[in-house]
Automatic annotation (TrEMBL):
<dbReference type="InterPro" id="IPR045225">
    <property type="entry name" value="Uracil/uridine/allantoin_perm"/>
</dbReference>
<feature type="transmembrane region" description="Helical">
    <location>
        <begin position="54"/>
        <end position="73"/>
    </location>
</feature>
<keyword id="KW-0812">Transmembrane</keyword>
<comment type="similarity">
    <text>Belongs to the purine-cytosine permease (2.A.39) family.</text>
</comment>
<keyword id="KW-1133">Transmembrane helix</keyword>
<keyword id="KW-0472">Membrane</keyword>
<feature type="transmembrane region" description="Helical">
    <location>
        <begin position="170"/>
        <end position="193"/>
    </location>
</feature>
<dbReference type="Pfam" id="PF02133">
    <property type="entry name" value="Transp_cyt_pur"/>
</dbReference>
<feature type="transmembrane region" description="Helical">
    <location>
        <begin position="205"/>
        <end position="223"/>
    </location>
</feature>
<feature type="transmembrane region" description="Helical">
    <location>
        <begin position="371"/>
        <end position="388"/>
    </location>
</feature>
<dbReference type="GO" id="GO:0015205">
    <property type="term" value="F:nucleobase transmembrane transporter activity"/>
</dbReference>
<protein>
    <submittedName>
        <fullName>Uncharacterized protein</fullName>
    </submittedName>
</protein>
<feature type="transmembrane region" description="Helical">
    <location>
        <begin position="79"/>
        <end position="100"/>
    </location>
</feature>
<dbReference type="GO" id="GO:0005886">
    <property type="term" value="C:plasma membrane"/>
</dbReference>
<feature type="transmembrane region" description="Helical">
    <location>
        <begin position="288"/>
        <end position="308"/>
    </location>
</feature>
<feature type="transmembrane region" description="Helical">
    <location>
        <begin position="249"/>
        <end position="268"/>
    </location>
</feature>
<feature type="transmembrane region" description="Helical">
    <location>
        <begin position="328"/>
        <end position="359"/>
    </location>
</feature>
Amino acid sequence: MAADEPLLHGSTHHQNVVGECCLGTEESRLEVNEESLLPTPPHLRTFTSLDMATLWWGVVTSVSTFYVAGALVEQGMAWWQGLLTVVLANVFQALFAILIGHAGAKYGIAFPIQCRASLGIRGAHFATCLRGIVACGWFGIDTWIGGQVLFAFIDALCSGQLQDYSSISWLGITLPELGCFFLFWLVQLAFVWHGVHGIRSLEKYASPVLLLLCGGLLLWAYLKAGGFGDMLSASSQFGKDGTKYGQFWTVWVAGLTANVGSYATLSLNISDFTRYARSQTDQILGQVGLPLFVGAFSFVGLAVSSATEKIFGYIISNPTDLIDQIGGAIPTLISLFGVTLALLTTNVANIVAPANALINMSPTIMTFRKGALLTAVVGFVIQPWRLYQSGDAFLNTWLLGAIWLQRSTNDVAALLQALQQLEESSSSVAVWMQW
């Protein structure tokens, strides 16, 4: 045996840990024979707290986070109440992610292997596949949005000539739109092709660029509007003289709950990333940044959206709609680049969960690259533009379906944990859980 083989395949201690997580049977150990599911060897545990922090910063710089606090202000809160609600929700989310990520940082195990500890090998398939289905859907939808931004970018360079193409009847989109979709699709695969370390490199170098662009957008809005507008000066509508007096706690609980679930999916499989952390300290410090980043980016969105009311006469909460109103070739191109980069850093993390789920189901056949490619193909096959272009389809078909799948994951986990408690008294349950 070569000197470096124990590190490549995990130390004896790490392999024992994997065995424990798979309920300790010899058959379970044989399931873990693909390198992506083996414990991360020490020489590959290189993620610092900064790497973990930039992962979250890249994820939270999204369209939804841009106006998440503004939505609460529209419900009647003062701007600081809405912002504090968002931050508090993500404090809970960060605590959850730290607890989930503990096993990954300690033992170097991925999310599917972590699931085996409580759900068994077959039970872990349910949890990881349901998580993977949701991620495939979001990958396709975000890829479509990213393709639309590229379409606008290229169309601006071509003086609007791309608008002249007619839709392909059986697809429902034009040829340039399809081309931009696959261009963004390929760019994401280029980073994911190098595994989690490729994603880390993207997040690490894109984060400072996104930070500068956010600062530039905030400065532009302030100077253009001569302030941040009426939204930041408006008082709460829940006071004694307000139109929604006595309704604060109802709105607050609903807003807090909705924001807690914003990044629940990534928090659920965060071990896929913390397994590469140098230490527990690095993964904890890095994830503490989640509520800080969400709060900061939400404030940017809140302030800019408020300023647009003075600049354009009405509130623009969607950054892609704001690009159309900014005007000027250079500002438009810079803005499109920023939105594209933000979508890219948000979406590449979606591909890790389904890729590892596929490996977990068939570790002798699947690899991370095969899993990532299959995930990307599924993201195209579902034709995400049909879901996104129709509000009813997006809400009733996808969002409700995604919520149902995530809820089903929790229900299956609870059921299998209850079955596991019966393991000693029922040999059939023991065999089913450990197969």
